[in-house]
Amino acid sequence: MDRTGAAVREEAVLFGQTRSLVGILTDPPESIKNTNLPGMILLNAGIVHRVGPQRLYVKIARSLAELGFVVLRFDFSGIGDSRVRPDNLPFERSAVSEAQDAMNHLGSARGMDRFVLLGLCSGADMSLKTAWYDPRVVGAVLINPQGDQQDAANELNAFAVDRKISRYYWQTALRNPKSWLRAVRGEANYAAIVRALVFQLRHRYARPKRASSGMNRDPANFRSLVERGVRLLLVFSKGDAGLDYFREVYGEELRHLCSGGKMDLHVIPRSTHTFTFLRDQGRLLGLVREWAQSVTARDLEVVREAT
């Protein structure tokens, strides 16, 4: 419900070229409906269907609808209630195509021509790729994106593994009495401990060497979106592999992109990859709501100045 007590409205929809995609369309109460706002589209987090991990997408959709946004959360083909595609189109291409189908549906059903995409994990990656291909996307909320780690150089993958091992031993095992007991009994993985120690010493005292991203295109994608005026919000769980990846690939450029006001980055401490705890879900919802309101306020101000 919004502040006046009016409830948001939800409707099951079928769309796509063969009407095989299943989604839930969440409309705001009529009292706060704003046709100037972009449509919000939520893309699947991995193979979790449209409710999202811990029903996170349901909470996000209803929360944004309470601000006046029309929100569509749907299942990619072969996930949840959406039928499997009859062709052999690779997922990265079919996901972009189906996200565009979702935009087309909101265009015909609600008269919208501007959209903000939101996703967690692979949903964030697909949001980024769709935004890069389709100029109707004016914003994206990327929650724990993982980037093109599979296509990254071996050096970058090795760095990510070493950092994950080091973080475990220095932040978790070091404070766990059971870990010390296993070490005394000779049951610990001493090779991994040495690997973590070497990584920590090298990272602290040696001059950092930026790992090559090889053929990775993420930095170019982000730069092109920022230059196009697309608003971006990145939210990471502290210690998430995606955060390590983006910091290593981008380096200082990540901070530079954020300084321009077109991209915001937030790190939520002590949260899991899928925001398991209600405390962390509340923090995430607060960030998304605040960003959506601030971005909308700036965009509407530009519209008023132009008219």
TrEMBL record:
Domain AB hydrolase-1, first and last residues per copy: 62-279
Gene Ontology MF terms: hydrolase activity
A UniProt-annotated Pfam family: Abhydrolase_6
Protein name, UniProt field: Alpha/beta fold hydrolase
Keyword Hydrolase: yes
Record key words, sorted: Hydrolase
Membrane-spanning parts: none
Domain of life: Bacteria
